[in-house]
Automatic annotation (TrEMBL):
It comes from Pseudoalteromonas maricaloris. It holds the Pfam family Acetyltransf_10. CDD domains: NAT_SF (cd04301). This is GNAT family N-acetyltransferase. GO terms for molecular function: acyltransferase activity, transferring groups other than amino-acyl groups. Its EC number is 2.3.1.-. InterPro entries: Acyl_CoA_acyltransferase, GNAT_dom.
Amino acid sequence: MNWQVKSYDALTKDELFEILKLRVEVFVVEQACPYPEIDDTDRAPDTRHLFLVKDEQILAYARCYRKSATTASIGRVIVSSMLRGQGVAHDLMHRAIACCETDITHEALVISAQCYLDKFYTGLGFVKQGEDYLEDGIPHQDMLFVKK
């Protein structure tokens, strides 16, 4: 297995297909949440696609992107069901945070996290900001990364 970070223009057609396939499998099908999964953030010049590949299959993914002039964000965080519970999500997020630190100039790093993952993200250094809200019918919370 190997980790890769690529811009939209550097992705191969097969890599893009595998990324989108995994995102739809988890966010649309598994979570039963029909919404526009693919958006213009995917192809923005500052966006970085971080993914884990094994045997040409993408098994974990996160999108690191510029949310505003001073803010970076991490989203679309996914680990394939066959790798869950093996620490891959922690590794993925540590790599995503590092990707934002090196590739996206920012003053703040934020995420919109599903509420049930609160302890996971808090353990990585994120702090809840504001009240919970519904996004596409799923409870979410905004979180800010605070370096330890």
